[in-house]
Structure formats: C-alpha cells, structure tokens
C-alpha cells in the first residue's frame, strides 16, 4: 500500500512539472531510484533519455526537448505562451553553444548563450531569452509584434527587460514596442506604413463601430479575416455605407492580402493618401 501511494505521489509530482522530469530532480525531491524504477517497470513512466522520464502521453514538445537536450524557445515557446506568432515553420529550440546532446534535424536550433541562466532541469526558456532569440530570428516587424504581445499580456516587464544587457537589435525592439498594442497584424500594418508619415490609429471608434485603422482623418482601412461571412459581412457592409455617407473613404482588404500580397495593399493605400483621401473635406 505504501508503494502504491508513493507511485501515485510520484506521478502526480511529475504531472505538476508538465509530465516530463529529470531523474536527478526527482531524487532531490525525495524519491528513491527504486520507486522510479518500479514506476517505469509498471508502465507509469516512460524513459525518454538518460536521466529523463515522462508520463505516458506527456506533452510531445517537452518530451522532444528532453530527448534532444534542448529547451523550447523563440517562436515555439512564444506560441506556447499564447503570444502572437505569425508563422512557425518548424520547432524552435535553444541550446548552449557548449552543451552536449542530440539535436533534432527537424528543429531550428539557436546556439546562443542565454541572457537569463537556464536551470539544468528546465525544458522551456524564460521569456527574456525567448524574446531575444525572436529578435534575431524574425524580421523586425514580426519580432516587434511578438515583443508587443508579451508586454501587453504581462508576460514580460519593460523595466526588467531594460536592465538586461540587450544588444542593439533587441534594444531597438524594446524602444519601439508599445505596452498596450492590439494584435500582431496591427503592429505589422502600422510599421509597414510608418514611412507615409501620417497618423495611423488602430481600432478607432467611428459612428458606433470600431474600424481596424483610421489613416489621417478620413481614410478607413478594414481587414477581413476568414470569419468575415454571413451576418458579420452584412453588418460591415452597412457600416461601410454609413461611413461613406459621412465623408469617409473605406478600403477593405483581407488578412491574407496584408501578409502575402503586401505590395498591392501598400500601393492601394499610398495612392489613396496621394489623392488626399485621408484629409478632412
């Protein structure tokens, strides 16, 4: 009975750690090698790599990190934290340049010394390391969207980031990041049009509805997502008509156009600004 209670407690402890644990950490927490071995023999634990075990069905990304001797970081950990991520073509992990271990060929491995030290038992990077890797991995506007998402959600604290020895690239992102930004798409849109040197207000409230962007005083840009159908579509069309009757000019594009056909979107907006459609009548 005592053994059974011990095994249940062991599995509960590992579950609280994310389902994957280092044997050395379990030993420090008070479990004997005998208890860990019995749990493995009964199928309650699965060997992952030397000195690492996991619960059956544990988080596959954490298991892969333990197996590879890396930590989840950059875009992968940003996505796991619920931050805005544009695209993640493959897992992004980090490893100390001098670390040993088997690194998966499928993953993008960031070989960089961390700003915040990583505990040997950790399988995910601290947010500060995640953001600094994103800064060098992604284009400026995409990285800025991730940084702003982290600040807006409280995942990162500006004052704490300021005290880190950030390099020029990361420092530039911190200086540009807004703590109360909306979606990543808003960040990308605004950064790409900054060269126009006109006021761009995201989520502006006009005639009882929010619009995605108000450029200048009269140019409205609406970005349609995949859910823009049915009743939502009818409501937006009616609001577009009301805006135009009040002297606003409306440009409506899709999410995919902004991300995949930006030159055409930029040309459309710059021509509208060139014609003065953003100015009050």
Automatic annotation (TrEMBL):
<protein>
    <submittedName>
        <fullName>DUF559 domain-containing protein</fullName>
    </submittedName>
</protein>
<dbReference type="Pfam" id="PF04480">
    <property type="entry name" value="DUF559"/>
</dbReference>
<feature type="domain" description="DUF559">
    <location>
        <begin position="198"/>
        <end position="272"/>
    </location>
</feature>
<dbReference type="InterPro" id="IPR011335">
    <property type="entry name" value="Restrct_endonuc-II-like"/>
</dbReference>
<dbReference type="InterPro" id="IPR007569">
    <property type="entry name" value="DUF559"/>
</dbReference>
């Amino acid at each position: 009975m005592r053994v059974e209670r011990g095994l249940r407690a062991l599995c509960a402890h590992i579950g609280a750690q994310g389902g994957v644990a280092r044997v050395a950490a379990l030993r420090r927490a008070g479990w004997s090698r005998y208890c860990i071995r019995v749990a493995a023999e009964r199928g309650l634990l699965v060997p992952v790599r030397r000195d690492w075990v996991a619960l059956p069905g544990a988080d596959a990304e954490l298991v892969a990190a333990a197996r590879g001797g890396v930590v989840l970081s950059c875009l992968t950990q940003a996505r796991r934290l619920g931050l805005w991520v544009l695209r993640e073509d493959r897992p992004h992990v980090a490893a100390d340049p001098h670390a040993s271990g088997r690194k998966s060929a499928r993953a993008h491995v960031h070989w960089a010394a961390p700003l915040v030290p990583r505990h040997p038992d950790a399988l995910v990077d601290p947010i500060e390391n995640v953001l600094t890797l994103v800064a060098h991995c992604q284009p400026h506007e995409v990285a800025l969207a991730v940084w702003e998402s982290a600040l807006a959600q409280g995942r990162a604290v500006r004052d704490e980031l300021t005290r880190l020895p950030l390099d020029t690239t990361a420092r530039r992102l911190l200086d540009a990041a807004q703590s109360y930004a909306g979606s990543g798409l808003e960040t990308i849109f605004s950064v790409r049009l900054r060269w126009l040197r006109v006021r761009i207000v995201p989520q502006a409230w006009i005639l009882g509805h929010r619009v995605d962007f108000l450029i200048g005083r009269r140019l409205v840009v609406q970005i349609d997502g995949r859910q823009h159908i049915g009743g939502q579509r009818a409501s937006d069309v009616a609001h577009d008509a009301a805006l135009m009757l009040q002297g606003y000019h409306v440009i409506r594009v899709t999410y995919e156009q902004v991300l995949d056909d930006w030159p055409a979107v930029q040309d459309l907006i710059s021509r509208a600004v060139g014609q003065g459609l953003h100015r009050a009548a």
